[in-house]
Amino acid sequence: MKKVLVINPGSASTKIAYFEDKEEILNTNVYHDSEDLEKFPTIADQYDYRLTFIKDYLDKENIELTDIDAVVGRGGSLPPVDAGGYLVNDEMTDWLVNKTDVHHASNLGALLARGFKEFSHDECIAMIYDPITVDQFHDLSRISGLKGVNRRSIGHMLNMRAIAMKTAEDTGKIYEESNLIVAHLGSGSSISAHQKGRMIDLSIDDEGPFSVERTGSLCLKEFIPFCYQMTEKEVIEWTRKKGGMISYLGTNSGIEVENRIDQGDDEARLVFEAMAYQVSKGIGELATVLCGRVDNIVITGGLAYSDRLVDWIKERVSFIAPVSCIPGEFEMEALRNGALRVLSGEEEAKEFSI
C-alpha cells in the first residue's frame, strides 16, 4: 500500500488530500486568514506559515507523516516543460523562489512537497505533476502573427490532461492513441487539442473565448485606444479580473446568471449564450488542428455544472464528435494518480533542469 499526500495551494487556501493507494482518507480545503497572508511580501515568503498551518491540521486529523511514500504538489510557473512528473530539486525551488515571472500561489506546491518530505522516511519522494507550463506545442502552434511574440503554452494543464486520460479510459481507448478536445470552463477558460497523447495546441484565456472574469480575445482595433486610457496594471485587471461575464452582468456567479435567465432577463441570456457560442468556436478551431479526426469532445470545469451552457455548446459542436461532460476539476486525483504511477514504476519521474 502506497501513501500519498497531495498539496494544492491557492491564493487564500490550500487544498490537501491524503490517500492510501487510491482510497481517499482525507480531502479538504484549509483556509488562511487574509490578514496573515498580507504580512508576507511575496508568495514564497508564505512557505513557513503554510507549512506549519498544514502540518498542525494534519496532526489534528491523525495523519502519520512519517509513513508517507510520496508528497506531490501542484506544479507552478516553471519554464516550459514536457508533461508528467518531476522530482523537486534545488534548481526547481530556486526558479520558483527567485526567477519566475509569474508569482502565483501554485509556486508553493513544489516547496511544500519538499518540506513535508522531510517529515517522512528516506525513500519518500517530493514531486510535482503536470505544472501549468506544460508545453507540447509543435512549431506551427507557436506562431502568433507578430514576429517576436510567440504563443505560449500555459493553462489548466493538470485537469485537462487528467480529463483526457479519463475520457479515453472510459470509452475503452488508449490516451496515446486518441484525438480529443477538452474545454475547461471557469473563471478563466482553456481549450486543448490532444493528439495521440500530446497536447499540441491550446486556446487559452487571453486569446480564446471570454469567461466569467476574463475577456479572452478582443478586437484589437477597438481595444488599442482603450489601453491608452489606463495603466498597464489597470489593463491587466480589466482583462483578467473584471472582464468577460462580470463586465456585462456585474456578477461572476453562473448560478445567479441562470436564475436571472429563468426570471426572463434577456441580457443575461444573451451574454451567457454568447459565452457558449465562443467556446463552440474555440472547439471548432481546434478540430481543424486535428484535421477533423476527433474521437471525443469533453467539457469540464466549474461552469460545466450548467446544463444550459453545456447544451448550447453541444448543439453547435456535436457534429464534430461525441460530446461528454465531466463537471468540476480533478486536480487532487490527478496529482495522486501521477504519484502512484511514479511509485509503481509505470512512469519515471523526470529531473527538472533549465
Automatic annotation (TrEMBL):
It comes from the Bacteria. It is an enzyme of class 2 (transferase). One of its GO terms (molecular function) is butyrate kinase activity. Belongs to the acetokinase family. The keyword Transferase applies. This is Probable butyrate kinase. It catalyses: butanoate + ATP = butanoyl phosphate + ADP. It comes from Vagococcus luciliae. The keyword Transcription regulation does not apply. Keywords: ATP-binding, Cytoplasm, Kinase, Nucleotide-binding, Transferase.
